[in-house]
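Lecture notes, structural biology module. Today: joint structure prediction for complexes of three components.
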Amino acid sequence: MSLSASLSASTNARRRPQSSLLVKRRRRVGVLLVVPALVLVGLLIVYPIAQAVYYSFTNWDGLTTQWVGPSAWVQAFHNPTMWTALKNNAELLLSVPFALGIPLLVAVMLHQRVAGWKIFRSIYFLPTAISWVVIGLVAEHFFAYSGTLNSLLSDIGLSSVHTNMLGQENEALIALGITFIFSMIGTNTMLFLTGLATLDPSLEEAARIDGAGAWRIFRHITLPHLSRFIQLAFVMTVISAFSALFSLIFVMTGGGPGYSTTTMEFLVYQTGFNQSQFGTAALYGIILFVITALVGVVQLRLIGAKDS
Amino acid sequence: MSVLSNPSTSSAALTPAPRASSIDVPGRNRSLARRRLGRTLIFASMILMAVVMLYPFAVMILVSFKTNAQYLIGHGSSTQTWRQINANLPVWQELWNSTVVCTLSIAIILVIGVMAGFSFAKLQFRGGNVVFLGIVSAMMVPLQAILIPEFVNIAKTGLTNNYLGAVVVYAALGTPFSIFLFTTYFRRIPDELIEAGIVDGLGYWGVLWRLALPMALPAIATVTVLQFIQIWDDLLVGLLFLQNPGERTITVGLAALAAGHTTSIPLLMAGSLVSALPAMIVYLLFQRFLVRGLTMGIDR
Amino acid sequence: MAEINFDRVVKVYPGGNTAVQDFSLQVADGEFMVLVGPSGCGKTTALRMIAGLEEVSDGTISIGGRVVNNVLPKDRDIAMVFQNYALYPQMTVAQNMGFALKIRNVAKDEITRRVAETAKILRLSEYLDRRPKALSGGQRQRVAMGRAIVREPQAFLMDEPLSNLDAQLRVEMRTEISRIQRLLGVATIYVTHDQTEAMTMGDRVAVMRGGVLQQVATPEDLYDHPANSFVAGFIGSPPMNLLSATVVEVEGALSARFGDQSVAVPGHYRESHHLSEYVTRPLLLGVRPEDLVLATPGVEGRFSATVTLREALGSEILAHLNFGGEDAIVSDEVAAASPGAHSSRIVARLGARAQVLVGERLELTLNPERLHFFDTSTGVTLARTR
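The predicted structure, tokenised, for the full assembly:
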């Protein structure tokens, strides 16, 4: 796609005899400067998409390849594990409202600029710097049988509720979701706070003079102003839920117990590198790609609607 | 743009305005008291939130100063874990590996991003917009979606046996964002400035390196900081594309150690702290560039 | 140093928009030529074509006798001053000024010498180490000038260089630029939309409209002998009054009728302005505001009008007047050829002590030797070319 576009660019330039020397140079340098990017992105991102589509129709195991055809897809859709992974992904989406709501609240509080708010801001953002591998390790300690959660529970007199969330099929995903929410707080707070800072303070003041209370100001001035930032955060959070949990799952649960915390992205890894079913793994990758692409298209729609 | 670094712009937002003291109406005192109560509540919630957000750091520090036995019984402290850390986790080697991989990848991401960004923003060649859209859409492709062919391709070239395997993958994943950011940034440079350079005797190549590049330093900083944190913290690419254990990054080393399941938790926490420190320092020093990058494109 | 020559230059933008049409103009060596016109008239495009920033669709441009249509900007040996100065933000004043020389591998000492010399002319010597950000608008403007001067080019191209300055500074810089240009004696093409700048700075002024050159002349000529009603209305402030009028001949004597008024026209206009051919035909009568004077009682050729607005400027009073008769709005055709043409309104520039009150009726005469006549549909002057 990209290569042919650049080719047609140069032939078009040649067809116009009146282009000045300067314009010709501009176009030539323009194309040359883009070539490295095209090669890199073309070879390492675009081409593998095509390959993945091809492999998804084979039973490739890393050594031998055999064309299977559409039945590979039929088989995949009859595989309960894939549906488990999709279900896990869907359930993880339930954490998105929290991953947006909590940061929104935090950002609004920071925006009040009470004493020491800058220190608080730095503290809240700090976890964004550390790897989700690290967060996952800490979360493992938090949710462990002898971990922080259980000692907190017994501190408040609930020692009977001694849990082992990561070891329970029906609770591990909740623990994963909570960790995911925690991991998103810093980034989303940062986004919302930036949005709030672009809010014209005289709007709020005018509303207050008109007698609007704090809630009304938030509902009718702050929130509409933040809508673009909320959209961006929403899309980023959803895409993260589909494609950034690998580190957390890898260190916290390894996808288990059973398949209870295996998401599509983790299933791609497991199928490919633990079971050597490269063909099926590529197929799962395509499904994941389609899902994230749909989210991306929705985002473009939203942005486009705003622009026009 | 970098609003967070310049909070004075809207600092007056919700602080009591001066007019509060002008007239003393009945009810003013009540509303003032209510406001004071509100701010106290906010302050308390913010403290609570701070405790939550600092929890990982507290755990890492406290637990790392225990032996495994002390950790299991729940009290006591020791520097033993720290003294023996290198025996279980080659931290120095892995920190070095992380640094090498980050440096090489970011260098590629910057060079390619600056060149393409300048071209898309200022050199309008035919079809440029389509190519730009194509590359920017590549930002949305998650690595997992192309993981299998990517791995096989890179493994075939033999690059997975050295740093370059991970480097080229990081570079490819980081380049679309870098191009997007540089394009947005260069679009803000007035055309007249480039024309001034042309009239002064530069070619477009010269304009890029001698005029546009020095002006793009803030964007370069943004890309560098964002990509540094991204690559430093990444697991998946390092795990698969650095097959030689001696070239593992610190994050991969840590995850591999954790996957062993036999290791002591204090050791993992010590390793976590070591792996987190460089990224935290970079983050604290360059916070404003990070924010700028995150909101680039929305803040036009 | 060199002359610049436009020969039937055409600029058509991709998409078919014609910016400059059949444009021919000679700028002599050392001349200060101003291109003036309303926005979108093609003046900036013309300038950018000399610089080489815009391709020439047809015709030729030559600098010093060399056709430069296919020469890169850097090889044209011209310097340009941009509207927003386009100073390199990361460089100091000295670096900004020396940059073009540095690119051309001029020796360091030489660059330093020439920058210092230029800075002296522009009174910038103490700011050489500052960055553009730390300069005022006027200083930035001078640095932009300095960047051009240092190069000792064949020609200066200036694109509205004063439009970002406040009014007072603009007046100051006007004389400053004129002074420097005369000092250096380099051919200069200066683009502006401000007719005052054009009149005060140019050796000659080229008026453009809609991509077409209207007239090239010295400021005095332009003012006294506008080639068409557009130039007449564009040059001068307030502009020339343009009245829809009819010339009638009664017993061998010519008079012009407009609104319900009539004034005598001296007989020599019959020859000099082809007036015989226009008798009883509509035309446009042009009168400069200062050529309207308060009539002393008993004088011939008086007409009367009501004051609708009085602008006291201290040194003079501008009286906006209305006379009766059909307050006909001029036809679209006339309005297109001669924006500002009216049939019943007129502005007079009167002495500061003139007794003028809004609502009062004034008796006026017009200076019979300074009348202008234009064709209604084409706007072209009826004066025979001298």
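Point to remember: The mean pLDDT of chain A is 83.
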